[in-house]
Structures are given as structure tokens and as C-alpha cells.
User: What shape does this take?
Amino acid sequence: MQARLNDILQDAAVKQIIGPTNLSVERLVFDSRIVRQGDVFFAIRGTTSDGHQYIANALAQGAIAIVCEHLPEFADSQCTWILVENSAYSLAKAAAAFYGHPSRKLKLTGVTGTNGKTTIATLLHQLFDQAGYPSGLISTICNKIGRKIIPSTHTTPDPVSLNALLSEMVEAGCSHVFMEVSSHAMTQMRTFGLQFAGAIFTNLTHDHLDYHGTFSAYRDAKKLFFDLLGSESFALVNADDKNGLYMVQNTHARVSTYSLNGTATFKAKILENNFEGLILNLDGNEVYTQLIGRFNAYNLTAIYGAALLLGMERETVLRGLSLLQSAEGRFDQLRSTNGITAIIDYAHTPDALLNVLKTIGTIRTHNEQLITVAGAGGNRDKTKRPEMARVAVENSNLLILTSDNPRNEDPMAIIDDMRKGIPGEHFKKYIVIADRREAIKTAVMMAKPGDIILIAGKGHEKYQEIKGVKFPFDDKEEVIQLFNHLQKP
Assistant: This one.
């Protein structure tokens, strides 16, 4: 794809241009290592490096224009210089223009919050796909154009990748797109060039404080998504979360709410909740669904409300909800031939882990053991580690502390951080097995018929990241192999 430089800069908040703008642009690039002839390089200030340090590299590799916040000392007439207030903002706006503003040709719905983003986005895509609407998905697990799967590297891609993906969806004939919008994406302005038909807020709990610093900064990054919505958009928020109405204090969008507890635009009540699924009363309509747990009752109510706000017929929505299947790695159940139940879940925050454990607690008979295998990610928010261990040990018969994705940290140092949250009266209820494969194997070997094993933290991930290297590892596959071994005489 090509575009003229002067065309893509229309909304990019340009302060000054030095040099010609009637240039043909091959690509927009913010990584100097991949610049080639005909590219425009955006010098962006990141958390660990500043793109302005790599302007010379970009020029040497053939950049025809540089977008930056200040001119380097060596600036000359060999290329066009574009001074802007914020390079990240300008990249988001320029990327949207470069790809012909694809979001304006789609009904794009964003989902934000701490927990539930992946499930809601994935199941909305399922619902609309089943109802005959060609749809796209942009999520943590994968991206989809219709039913074509494209690997995902980030919850919310960078602006260039994002607009390129949306452009492909337009070309493929998609009418709707559902995407996760992370707090990182908002502070880095990745979505600033997009037009949203609607936005959904799930909930807000402790997460990503390593990046945002404070809970209020994390909350306000989520709120920014709603602040930027136009009057043509809808905002659907969880009225049962104390931050729900805060999110829409300054929005121009049409506000709707959903709730399990009180008055709301879309109201649900749990009638039955067991390992077979949920029966919900949605605005007076009884619906059976294969999903399990109170947290999924919230997810389904949000999906129900969003589908109606997007114009789907109520009967179609209600019928479609009963056909939905859980997103991969979200309360994923496996059962051995001798009656052991294993649940694989992505829960990697204290609140998400508590939700899963409470869900199991409301369904189990308590005549069986609940064994939880859990860890915490390295190079991430350390303050949640003790709380995760406390939640896990208090709601399990046995906790096995293990490694998650240690990344560049020592796995035992992470586990030691977690152990600090375990109250003294529960010291006999946990063991430490740092090797994740051995931890899962131990849980299966210790389990008796009827027992439940929760393996938390990695969910859909097919790798374990150790010392910067991703090694193949799949919690679900580990359990399948162990269960198959149990069947052998």
C-alpha cells in the first residue's frame, strides 16, 4: 500500500514541516532496525528507549521523512522533517489515514477492564459469526478475519499493525470487529486513530501497577478510552463495579449499564450454576449457556447488551447465547476416566483467581479436594504476588506454588514473594515445586477420583518464557498426557 505524505499528515497534529510533503510513502515505521527506502520513521519515546536516538540509523537505511518531537543537531535537507507534539499520537492518526481509515467502514467495538476482555470479545465474535455477520476479532489469544486465524503478539497491536489488520478485515467484507483495548494501549495512544461504534467496561481490579505506578493511573488509562468516544458511539459499563459509572463521567457516548445486583439497562439473574453450565434470566428471558460461574454471568450479560446495542434482534441474541463456547484457556475443563476434574484458567490477578476459586466453591460438594497450581509472572507487578497466594491457599485444600512465566527473574524469588502472603494458619496447606511440569504432575498424582485441580495463570498460552526465551509448554496438553497415562493399565 502507498499514500502521499501530505495526505496522511492531515490529522497528525503537526507543528512544523521542513522539506517537501508531496512524497510517496511506502510504509510507516517506528523501529529503526526495519526501515527501508521510502519509509517514514516515527521517533517515539518508549518506557525503555527513545526513538529519537535512532534517527540517524533510520536515515542511513533510506527513510524519506522523520516524524519527531525535536530536531537532532545533524538535521539537514536530505529528508523531510516533521515536528509534532507527540510522535505516538501522530503515528496513530497517520496510520489510520495511511490505510484509508478502515475503522470508519466497520462497526468496531472495544472491550476494556481487568478481567473478561478476552472472553467478551471472543464470544461477541462467535455470536455475530453464528448469526451470519462477517466479523473480525483482535484479542490476546488470536486475531481472526472471519474464521481465518492470525497469531496475536499483543492484547492490542501497535497502530500500524492495527490499522493494517482492520484494512484486511474491510477487504474481506467484515461488517463488525470486536477487540480488546488494554490500558497500555491507551497510554501509548495505539487506538487514537480509530472510530469505535461502542465500548464495554468489565471491571477494575489490581493489575499492571508495575507499568502505571498507581491504581488511579491504571483506572484513568481505562477511562481515557471512554473519554474519547464520540456521540455516535455507545458505552456499556458494569454497574456492579464501583468504577463503572466513573468510566463514563466525561464521555460523549450514549451510556448503558448491565448488572446482576441492581437496576440497569440490561439485567441478569443466575437461576442455576453448575459444572454443566449456567441458566440465566436475562430481562425476563430464561437462557441456558455452556459457560460456568458468576463471572461468566457478567460476561454474558455484557455480550447480550452489546449485541442489542449493535442492532441484533433480541431473539437471535438469546438463541445465540446458548450456543457459545468458552474462550480457550478460560475455565477450560478436562475430566479423567477415574473422575478427576482439571480446570485450566488464565487467571493471573488476585481478583480473577478469586473469581475462579469462588465459582468452583459454589459448585463443588466439599467432599473432594481442591488442589490449586499457581504462580506469578516475572518482570510484572510484584505487589499482586502475596495476594494471589493468600487467595489461592484460603480457597483450596492444597496449594502448589510453582513457576509461571519467570521471564528474566529467578523463579524461586517470585515464589518467595508469593509465600509472604500466606497466613501462618495455612502453612501446612501449601508446597513449593518450582518446575511447572512437575507441579502439574504432582497435582494429578495426588488427586483422587472426584477431586478438582485448578491450574491457573497461563490459560491459552503455548509457551513458558524463561530468561527471555519462549519454550513450548501447554498446561492443557500436560494434563491431557497425564490423564491418558492414568488410563493405561
The CA atoms of residues 278 and 473 lie 31 Å apart.
